[in-house]
Amino acid sequence: MDIDVNKIAMLARIKLTENEASELGPQLSGILGYIEALSEVTTEGVPATAHPHDAAMPLRANIVTNSNRREDLQKPSPKIESGLYVVPKVIE
């Protein structure tokens, strides 16, 4: 498999020396060869999984724990209108 390491490095915005490029060529070829070997594996009848372990996420009860404190939190504000903070205009 002939890989243009310099082109890949340019696309990835990675600066490589010629020595680094000559070392990476065989490594990239090996990785791509492994990917090709994996694509030949038959996976028919194998169920899709989201996690390698059969782990379940614990769920908590959906109970509201905070009350509506809007009025208490807006009391210190100098001006409130329809439940919203009114601030000075900053863009004209």
Please tell me about this protein's structure.
This protein is mainly α and 92 residues long. It has a domain at 5-39. The protein is built from three helices and two strands, in the order αααββ. The longest helix is centred in the N-terminal third of the chain and has 22 residues, at 18-39. The termini are far apart.
Order of helices and strands: HHHEE
Q: How far from one another are the termini?
A: 63 Å
Round the Cα radius of gyration to an integer and report it.
30 Å
Q: Tell me roughly what share of residues is in helical segments.
A: 25-40%
Which regions have little confidence, pLDDT < 50, spanning 5+ residues?
Answer: none
Class based on secondary structure composition and strand pairing: mainly alpha
Count helical runs: 3
The major sheet is characterized as: 2 strands, antiparallel
Shape summary: elongated
Please indicate the percent range of residues in DSSP E strands (runs of 2 or more).
under 5%
Kindly state the number of beta strands: 2
Spatial order of the strands in the main sheet? 1-2
Mean pLDDT: 88
